[in-house]
Every structure is written in structure tokens, then in C-alpha cells.
Amino acid sequence: MKILLANEGYLERAGVCMYMYQWSHILATEYPDNEVTVYFRLTVKDEELRRAFESDGVRVVIGNRSVEETSADKGNRDAIKKDLRNILSEGFDIVHVHSSIIGFTTLVLREAKKAKVPMRIAHAHRREFENGIVRKLLHKMLRRYIRSAATIYAGCSKQSGEYIFGKKGVRRNRWRMVTNAINTKKFVFDREKRSARRQELGVRDSEYLLGAIGYLEQVKNHEFLIGVMEKLKQQGRNTKLVVFGNGSLREKLESEIRSVGLDNEINLYGVTDDVPGWLSAMDCFVMPSLIEGLPLSAVEAQTSGLPCLLSDLITDEVDITPLVCHLPVDKGPDPWVEKIAALCESFSEGKQFASREGAVQKVVDAGFDWSALSGEIGRLYGLS
């Protein structure tokens, strides 16, 4: 079979792109008789990742108009249509849209339907902001089209599925919950990596290291963490924060960090290719996001045995171990400061290390390992 995986964003080492890499890798290694193509609307940000796709025998296609405007921009709509028509003219059996952008999902499904692709999958990964009545009305109309054009509705969580397909949509026979699974073996707690990474940052054993992973954009709410760290410092807590990811708010966040005198406490590290090592280095994972689907990084953190403090706006479907605690982001930093302070007080390296090394089995048992995803892909595509 010929399979197309499509996404509106960049080819980069983050979020949905990494999920698509895992997905295509499983197809290439466990279902090798299929021909897989991935389409990204924007540019390549990580050539090494592109080579990883291609080394699996996966063809990579990048959009012809790689600009920042959304898929609602007329020039981009025309470019996406042209890209898709060129690809789909080769004849595909499955088109699988990995996106929560309603306009992009609509465009892909429309072209796939025109090309008479028999299996058309819309796969929701998160919710998005809907500002303005015109946008809401447009999305309402496009959702109706998506429900009619997609032969299968998929989502990493019920919450993300409801955003694309509506509450009635996730109750239909077409709905499939697809686990945000990971290669759990990669994320097992590692004492040696912990020591090496903390040494790289200059974090002492006596310091409690918080960590966050995500784009430096409004929805990730990193500014909130500055307020948390400011209060922890005022209390004399021996805490530091490292943040992984880049984005448009980097300069603004750096300026705010300097203005409150937290240069030594907060490190905006940028992008890393060693998330497992850094998770081992952390003592607590924090995610105050305003919007998420079912965040892979929270699954990875639990696999590493980390206490996870997540926004109460994030679905509790990610609570696959007792390590997760949801806290409000609309009541200021105090609830977060209080919880982190309690974690600092009870912290013991010896006890934590022993419990962290055994956390992976709970994640596997909950069905979030690659081995489970392989079976889900086979059933979804009718390959097994």
C-alpha cells in the first residue's frame, strides 16, 4: 500500500513531527511492504531528522511555499493544493493527516477525496485557540466537512478529538483513540546521564532542578514559570529551571528573566537531541500549558520517573502513573510554589532513584510503549 502522512508544520525535532517519525519508523520496520511518504508544509529545521526519515526508506516532501502564513492565506491554500495534487497523482491507498489545524486538515481531506483515496484519516493532536466569532463560524462549517470527508476520526485524546470532530463525532463508529506511545526503553532513568547533564549546567546535587519542554510560544505559558521561580527564590529555595525548545518569545522571556534577576536560576537551553538524558537530570517536570492534546513529553517524563506538575487545562488522560499532579494556572504561581516547596522538602536522592528506575513498567502496562502502537497502526490501516 501507498501511505501519505501530512502535517502543516516544520520538519523539526519536536511535537507532532517526532510522533510522525515514530509512526513512519514503525511502518518502515514492522510493515516494510508499504511505501510511505511524509509531507510537511513548511521548511526543514533539522536535516539530521530528515535523513533519519529517509534512511528508513520514507520519502520526504516539503511544501513549495514555505512561509509563516497560515493555511488560510490564499497563496498558501493554492500551494498546498498544488503540492497535494502532485503527490496524490501517483495513487495512494491511505492519506493520514496529523494535524489539529482545521483549515489544513480540510484542504488535505478535500484533495484526497477528489483523488479517490479510499482511506482518509484525520488525526487530532491538540486543541487550538479560537478567537473571534468569524473564525468560530468558519471552523464550525469546516468541521462539518471534515466529518463527512474523513473515513476515520483519530485522536491522541478525547479532548483533542472533540476539538476537531465535536462531542458527537467521538461517539461515532469512525472514532479511534490512538495512543501517544513512545520508545520507553530510551527514557528509563539513567544515573550516569543525570550526573553528566547536571554537571554541564553547573547544577549541584543539593539543587532541585525543574524542567520544561516545549515551543517558546504563548500556549506553553513559560512566562508563568518565571513568576513561580521568582517566588521560590524569595523563599530561599535552592531551585533551578531549565527550559528546552525555541520560539518567537525567546527574546521576550530572556528580557523578563534578566529584569527579575533570575539569570542564574533559569536556563533557556534551546533544542536538544538528548531529551532522555535531560529528563534523568531533572527532579521535577513542569508544564503550565494553556493548550495541549496528550503531551508526549509528559509521557516521557513519567517514564523517567519524574514528578509531573501539569496545568489543570491539560487532559487527565495523560495521568498514566501516580506521578502526575494538575494545578491551576488562573490562580497565580502560589499553588505551584507550594507544591514544589513540598517536593523539595521531601526530596531524597536515594529514595527517588530507586522509584525512578522502576517507573517505566507502569508506562508499558498502561499501553504507552511502541509495542502497543505497532499493533494500533496495524489495526487502523488493516495491515494486521
What does the model show?
The chain is an alpha/beta fold and 384 residues long. The protein has helices at residues 15-30, 47-55, 74-88, 102-114, 133-149, 158-169, 191-201, 222-234, 250-259, 275-281, 296-303, 334-346, 349-357, 359-365, 370-381, and strands spanning 2-7, 35-40, 59-62, 94-98, 119-124, 152-155, 175-177, 208-213, 239-244, 266-270, 284-287, 308-311, 324-327. It has a 7-stranded parallel sheet with strand order 3-2-1-4-5-6-7, sandwiched between helices. α8 (222-234) links the parallel β8 and β9 (239-244). The chain is globular. The two termini are 13 Å apart. The model has no long low-confidence stretch (mean pLDDT 90).
Q: How much is the radius of gyration in Å?
A: 21 Å
Mean pLDDT: 90
Oligomer: single chain
Under the CATH scheme, which architecture of the largest domain would be assigned? 3-Layer(aba) Sandwich
Order of helices and strands: EHEHEHEHEHEHEHEHEHEHEHEEHHHH
CATH C-level label of the largest domain: Alpha Beta
Give the uncertain stretches in residue-range form. Answer: none
Q: Number of helical runs?
A: 15
Question: Which percent bin holds the helix content?
Answer: 40-55%
Q: Give me the side-by-side strand order of the main sheet.
A: 3-2-1-4-5-6-7
Tally of domains: 2
